[in-house]
Structures are given as structure tokens and as C-alpha cells.
Fold:
Amino acid sequence: MAITTILFDLDNTLIDRKRVFEEMLMQKIGEYHNENVADIVQEIIKWDNNGNQHRLVTFQQYVDTYNVNVTAKELNDYWNENSGKIIYVYDDVYETLRYLKSKYRLGIVSNGNPESQRRKINQLPFIDLFDLVIVSGELGIDKPDIRIFDYAAKSMNVTNNECAFVGDNFRCDILGATNAGMLAIWKCTKEQFDEKYICIEHINELKKYL
Structure:
């Protein structure tokens, strides 16, 4: 069946979560160290693994490693309170979405807590291009659970195999969408390219496939 609907992940797919996370860490972690802050921040980013490790686990790893006077919960609360106040949209996203909107219906399916994710979504300069926006924390179902993909398709009044899903997280987005019967398109680095999947490095490459 032909693709009629394109669903997108949000963080590190449409907007640069890594940049915001790094800026937040540089500011906050700098409160507990007089030197080597940049190196420590890069270590935390490595532990975070592009959001694949739960933030509480990452922050606990930092607290345990450096024996700082702050708890993992306090750091996580700080992130939740501030995440979404600033967003960085990738340069090629707006023009590509406008192109795709002429041919497809568009939606967002994002994991995360409602407050911070909605702050990000409300700042998107192209939010009017989307017919559907789902935040997992509002449903109590996270990707890669196929129920959230099923819910998105049903909400758009299409079947799963009419949907393409674009995301950067292999487990949550690519495996989740594949298991739900959707066409998965993996936004990843060239080093991660896998011939078993449609892989793109930049969003504007979607024009080749859709």
C-alpha cells in the first residue's frame, strides 16, 4: 500500500537535542568543578548515548564517578524544568517539511515528559504543518511499544502500512516502527548506515525516498 502519512520523532530528528543537552551540562556541571568541565561534559554525553540511557542512570553515574554534592534526581529535575526553553531546529527541516506537506499528511510521535516536550513543540516554527502531535508521557506508552504507533495511525485514520516513520533512535524509532508494520527511515550518521534499512544523514534526503 502506498505511503500517505509521515510520522517524525522530535529530538535529534527535527531539533538538536544534543546541542541543548551539552549547553545545559556546561552550565550546570560547571557549578561543581573548577577545571576539565568540557571533558566531563563529553563523558556524560557519551554515557547518555543520545538519550538511549535513562537520564537518571546517566546522572547517577556522574554523581558516583565524581562524588559531587548533588543528587541524580536534582540534576534530572533541573533538566526537566529547563528542557524545551530553547530549541535548535536543523537547517534543512522547514523547507523539507513544506515539500513533504504537499504530498503527505505529517505527524510527530515523541517520547518524553509532557511539560518539556510540549515546550519544545510549541516553539516549532512549522507546527502548523502537522496534523497530529503525540507525546508519550500523555499516553503512558513509550516507543518502541507498538501500541503508540498503532495509536498514531488510528488517530490519522490510516493503516500502519500507509505510514513512514522517521527517527534517530534505532531501538525506539526504527525497531518500534518496523515491528508496528510501518516503513522505518533511520536518521543516523554515515558510520551507522545499514543496508537493511533506509538510512539518511539529513532530513532533506527524504526527498529521494518519499
Observations:
- The mean pLDDT is 96.
- The CA atoms of residues 187 and 200 lie 5 Å apart.
